[in-house]
Design brief:
This protein is an alpha/beta fold. The protein has helices at 34-44, 60-70, 92-100, 115-121, 125-135, 146-160, 369-378, and strands spanning 14-16, 30-32, 49-53, 76-80, 162-164, 166-167, 170-175, 184-189, 199-204, 207-211, 231-234, 239-247, 253-261, 278-279, 282-283, 288-295, 318-326, 338-341, 345-349, 358-365. It starts with 13 loop residues before the first strand and ends with a helix. Helices cover 20% and strands 27% of the residues. The strands form five sheets. A seven-stranded mixed β-sheet has the order 5-18-19-20-16-17-6, with helices on one face. The chain has a seven-stranded mixed β-sheet with strand order 14-11-12-13-7-10-15, with no helix packed on it. Helix 1 packs across helix 2 (60-70) and helix 5 packs across helix 6 (146-160). The chain folds into three domains: 6-80, 3-Layer(aba) Sandwich (Rossmann fold); 83-165 and 287-379, Ribosomal Protein L25, Chain P, CATH 2.40.240.10; 166-280, Ribosomal Protein L25, Chain P. The radius of gyration is 28 Å and the shape is elongated.
Length: 379
């Protein structure tokens, strides 16, 4: 009782609780306390080094004393600062609240920092290991920027993910001087970082879809994509020029009329003229329907810790895009398959995919858009 460490003053070994246990029912009413069970569990399991949070540093003398009194194999307990990531929470209690109160879809929700959530979103073991190796082990509490984890994911997926074309917000394009009944197969590179990945064939036809954001009727300065009278390059395809714009009754652009230059097949011109913009596309007759789930930071502040953490939840942490279209090579995309949607980001096929509709989770964008938004807000 005279010990300056309060944990050594007449420590409690067991507690009595007359309540139904979720596994054993009413069979037991005596339960071991953590300090008593911790060392014995480590000893029985043959743990050599028991790594704990800094909060357990004051508990180590009791951990050691129990093992010494029992005379059993004695592991070594070492305390270190826990990993804290920005814009998320790692506390199991906080994560459980988010799951049980329905703020997320489950423990494998891709917005959560759980291993099953990270796996479903498309994070690879290699990226996580490299991140942990760079962060290292510290004795001082700190907050690690989640952008570092995203950086390692981009570095890893850039080498391993197959490139494909997917249009998330489709805009119809009719190439008026292309034969109506003609279909070509254009050769596309699977991964420029990995020559062994080879190539694939992508169908091309008179009617294609491009991204809505790749067309501006009144383009701003330095906008190098498609606009009335302007020419752009279709990835792996032809140069096309916009000759007409069709709008609905609300004035929204719903269709573009274009012409193509047959001499520019493959994306280059024999007369040497150059275009600055290259956009991706899918063939209307061959594209597959898909849903894209775009995930963002779970919280709006760097450090959401504290009992009021749920007040900082990001209401825009998930955006579901229906009506997306992807190239036909993705027909057999297995859950967990990783791809780079060209110019869009890295995506992972979700277990919710079905034969009628593919579902892809965005693992990470091609660049850190969040940082750019923050810089703009501060400016």
């Amino acid at each position: 009782m005279a010990s300056p460490n309060i944990n050594l003053r007449d420590p409690v070994i067991y507690r009595i609780l007359h309540a139904a246990h979720h596994r054993t029912g009413d069979q037991w009413c005596i339960y071991p306390m953590y300090d008593w069970a911790h060392g014995q569990s480590d000893s029985i399991e043959g743990v050599t080094h028991s790594l704990c949070d800094l909060a357990y540093e004051d508990h180590r003398p009791l951990y050691d004393w129990f093992l010494e009194q029992l005379g059993i194999y004695h592991p070594r307990q070492i305390e270190f600062a826990r990993l804290n990531l920005s814009y998320t929470v790692l506390s199991k209690r906080f994560l459980r609240e988010l799951v049980e109160e329905g703020y997320v879809s489950g423990w494998d929700d891709p917005r959560l920092p759980t291993l099953c959530g990270l796996r479903r979103r498309g994070y690879t073991p290699q990226a996580i290991r490299r991140f942990i190796e760079e962060v290292g082990v510290a004795k001082r509490e700190n907050l690690v920027d989640i952008a570092l984890l995203e950086h390692h994911l981009r570095e890893d997926l850039n080498k391993r993910a197959l490139r494909v074309m997917g249009v998330l917000r489709p805009l119809k394009v009719v190439i008026e001087n292309y034969p109506e009944d003609q279909v070509e197969e254009l050769e596309a590179v699977n991964n420029p970082e990995d020559p062994a990945a080879g190539t694939r064939k992508v169908p091309f036809s008179r009617v294609i879809y491009i991204e809505q954001e790749d067309f501006r009727e009144d383009p701003p300065k330095k906008y190098f994509r498609l606009a009335p009278g302007r020419e752009v390059r279709l990835r792996y395809g032809y140069y096309i020029k916009c000759t007409g714009v069709i709008k609905d009754e609300k004035g929204q652009v719903v269709e573009l009329r274009c012409t193509h230059d047959p001499a520019t097949r493959g994306g280059w011109s024999p007369d040497g003229r150059k275009v600055q913009g290259t956009i991706h596309w899918v063939s209307a007759a061959h594209a597959l329907p898909a849903e894209a789930r775009l995930y963002d930071r779970l919280f709006t502040v760097e450090d959401p810790g504290g009992e009021d953490f749920k007040t900082h939840l990001n209401p825009h942490s998930l955006e579901r895009l229906e009506g997306c279209l992807v190239e036909p090579s993705l027909a057999d995309a297995a859950p967990g398959s990783l791809y780079q949607f060209e110019r869009q980001g890295y995506f992972c096929a979700d277990p919710d995919s079905s034969a009628g509709k593919l579902v892809f989770n965005r693992a990470v964008s091609l660049r850190d858009t969040w940082a750019r938004i923050e810089r703009g807000a501060k400016g």
